[in-house]
Write a structure and sequence with these properties.
globular; 62% helix
Length: 293
């Protein structure tokens, strides 16, 4: 990327610094994504409760699955381990957290999840400046995951746990970008600029991030353009359809702009079919929230 500057004395030097830091941030992200081993915080509360709960030596596997299933980065890294050569002798790629935990075992799951949660807690102090935004993003993520699970179960033949997984990680790029933006002084004091960058880049950076973290290709593909309005020509059939609809039912990019996004731009979603699922989606969402209460 090339940085452009001007000698015009009327240009606000802070704006110039902001532009330079935008470019630097995107360049740093591109460089870091090539490293493969990437870590960043998502939600402080989730990481703290996961760490505390999993320290209990008597914790049951069902509880472990429920806890780690609320934290996007933990889920991604558990899937990567479960699909690694060491644990996947058959070559069968798995895409849901239940099977991942069963495959790698309770102790390995607990060790990895605690390690990731600890790392996130150490990094979370950097996200204080974007605390409200990161919390809103996490709540949107849980609501999308809940909607994806219900949509898959009620309207398709797609595995509902795989759909929930895809919903949970669909905005992973936004979490990562928030963390990276917090590293730059000019970005920390310019929330509107951060929102603009997130809106413009979170999908493409998310795609690269998920590939770097080793997520199965069908998950990456399904989340690729979840915020791009398009027609549902054949209704909800595929995992990609599910993620798109679930994301919109959860407010789309409303988390980024302080409220639930209007659905007028998505008339295909304003139907009795989806309205009939609202209560079930809400119940699923509250159940997810209850895991960490």
């Amino acid at each position: 990327m090339t940085e452009h500057f001007t000698d015009d004395p009327n240009i606000d030097k802070k704006d110039e610094a902001l532009t330079a830091q935008r470019f630097r941030m995107l360049e740093d992200i591109a460089r870091e994504l090539s490293a493969k081993d990437i870590s960043f915080p998502t939600c402080f509360d989730a990481a703290l409760k996961i760490r505390n709960a999993l320290r209990d030596p008597g914790v049951q596997i069902r509880e472990v699955v429920r806890m780690v299933g609320t934290e996007p980065l933990v889920v991604v890294k558990l899937l990567r381990m479960a699909n690694s050569v060491a644990y996947n002798r058959s070559g069968q790629v798995i895409t849901d957290i239940d099977t991942a935990v069963t495959r790698i075992g309770l102790e390995a799951t607990r060790t990895l999840a605690i390690s990731i949660a600890m790392d996130q807690l150490l990094r979370s102090k950097d996200l204080v400046c974007f605390g409200d935004l990161s919390k809103a993003l996490w709540l949107h993520t849980l609501r999308t995951a809940a909607a994806a699970r219900v949509l898959a179960a009620r309207l398709t033949r797609v595995n509902r746990e795989e759909a929930m997984m895809a919903g949970l990680v669909h905005d992973l790029g936004a979490f990562y970008m928030l963390y990276r933006a917090a590293q730059y002084e000019e970005m920390r004091i310019r929330l509107d600029s951060v929102r603009h960058l997130l809106a413009q880049w979170h999908e493409s950076i998310g795609e690269s991030l998920m590939s770097a973290l080793g997520l199965p290709e069908q998950i990456v593909q399904a989340t690729r353009e979840h915020d791009q309005p398009h027609a549902l020509e054949h209704g909800v059939r595929t995992l990609e359809d599910i993620v798109y609809v679930a994301n919109q039912l959860a407010g789309g990019m409303g988390w980024l702009f302080g409220g639930k996004a209007p659905t007028e731009g998505h008339p295909a979603l304003d139907t009795p079919e989806f309205a009939a699922l609202a209560d079930e989606i809400e119940a699923e969402y509250l159940a997810l929230m209850g895991v960490l209460s």
